[in-house]
Specification:
Layout: H1 2-8, H2 10-41, H3 46-57, H4 61-71, H5 80-105
Helix pairs in contact: 1-5, 2-3, 2-5, 4-5
C-alpha cells in the first residue's frame, strides 16, 4: 500500500513533503513526550514504562493510510501523512532503540 500511495502521489509529496514530515515528526514526538510524562507521574516499573513509551509513540501508519483512502476518497492527499509516517517510524524506531541502548550502557537508564 505504501508504494502505491507514494507512486500515485509522488508530485504532491515532492511539493508538500516538508509540511507533512514536520507534522508526522511532531505527532511522533508528542506521543513519546506525553507517554514519558504520564509514565513518570505514575511511577511505572521500567519494563512497563519502556513498553508504553515505545508502543504509544509508534502509530499504525498502514491503518491510517487505509482509513484516509476509504474515508476521504475525494481528498487523495489525505493518505500522504500515513505514507510518510510509515517511513519515519522505521527510521525513528531504530534511532530511539539505539539511544536507549547507549543510555543503558552508560547506566543512565536502569533495567
Amino acid at each position: 500500500m505504501l508504494s502505491i500511495i507514494i507512486s500515485v502521489n509522488s508530485n504532491d509529496i515532492a511539493s508538500n513533503w516538508i509540511i507533512a514530515t514536520v507534522a508526522v515528526i511532531l505527532l511522533s514526538f508528542s506521543g513519546h513526550i506525553i507517554t514519558y510524562i504520564i509514565g513518570k507521574m505514575l511511577k511505572l516499573p521500567k519494563d512497563k514504562f519502556y513498553t508504553l513509551f515505545i508502543d504509544l509513540g509508534m502509530k499504525n501508519s498502514g491503518l491510517a493510510a487505509s482509513l484516509a483512502a476509504e474515508s476521504f476518497p475525494m481528498f487523495y492527499m489525505a493518505t500522504i501523512p500515513g505514507a510518510i509516517y510509515s517511513i519515519w517510524q522505521n527510521i525513528w524506531g531504530i534511532i530511539l532503540l539505539h539511544i536507549i541502548r547507549k543510555l543503558k550502557k552508560k547506566n543512565i537508564l536502569s533495567e
